[in-house]
Amino acid sequence: xxxxxxxxxxIGSSARVFNHLARKPRIEEILxxxxxxxxxxxxxxxxxxxxxxxxxxxxxxxxxHMEFEKWRNGGGFFxxxxxxxxxxxxxIGAVVxxxxxxxxxxxxxxxxxxxxxxxxxxxxxxxxxxxxxxxSIGDSCIIHNGACIGQDGFGFFVDEQGNMxxxxxxxYARIGNHxxxxxxxxxxxxxxxxxxxxxxxxxxxLVQIGHNAVIGKxxxxxxxxxxxxxxxxxxxxxxxxxxxxxxxxYIAPKVRLAANSCVTKDIRExxxxxxxxxxxxxxxxxxxxxxxxxxxxxxx
Length: 300
Prior knowledge:
CATH topology of the domain at 133-281: UDP N-Acetylglucosamine Acyltransferase, domain 1
Strand order of the largest sheet: 1-2-5-8-11-14-19-22-25-28-31
Mean pLDDT: 84
Distance between the termini: 71 Å
Structural class: alpha/beta
CATH superfamily of the domain at 133-281: Hexapeptide repeat proteins
């Protein structure tokens, strides 16, 4: 019990907090709103006084004014300003923050955090331990366990004094309808334009999509694909496993890239490509065949 209260403690604060909040129901209210539970039969006066002298006034006031409530369908917590359809299921351990919007039949599994002002369309399922911030999710999507959507992109610059500074990342990530996103996939929010994933696109596990990327509809991205920032990708594009795409590259619709390929420049024509750098597939196959022939002949 002492450990539970000590989690609220901040070293260096005054003893006035617990003197002001002396009665036990008040302390229980603070801890309950912090998603902690207190059994006063195991809380001695000594431990109460000893810990109370180290609790921050600011932290205690924040706990008192927290406006989170327990959702009746599933036991998760939500902010009072969130707009949640009555049919939504928020499992225990999940948290929905302020001004978020959850549509009908949304399912939020345990451990997931829905950040402020996030929108989730109807019939979408969010897996365990997922982090959603600065984003909107369309209807009938599936977001698998551990995915992170809407965090800052990787953007920095060096100023005149040689300091490494962060570029502002202030825009959203927009996920279309009927999109499936695999476990532990990361999709960054935009900086100069929004990151967009088109309708019916399917993304495998462990995929990285950088800020400002725009991916068309009905695309397929296999495991461990890495897409750098500001890439523009047309509809019906397929990327095999471990394909890498450099920043600011355009890929035309109906392009298919073989596994382990690397796109270093624009691909303007539909078709199959492969290799590093990626070239039309027949050219890449000739390169591979020539290299094998030279190896057999002992030609370096």
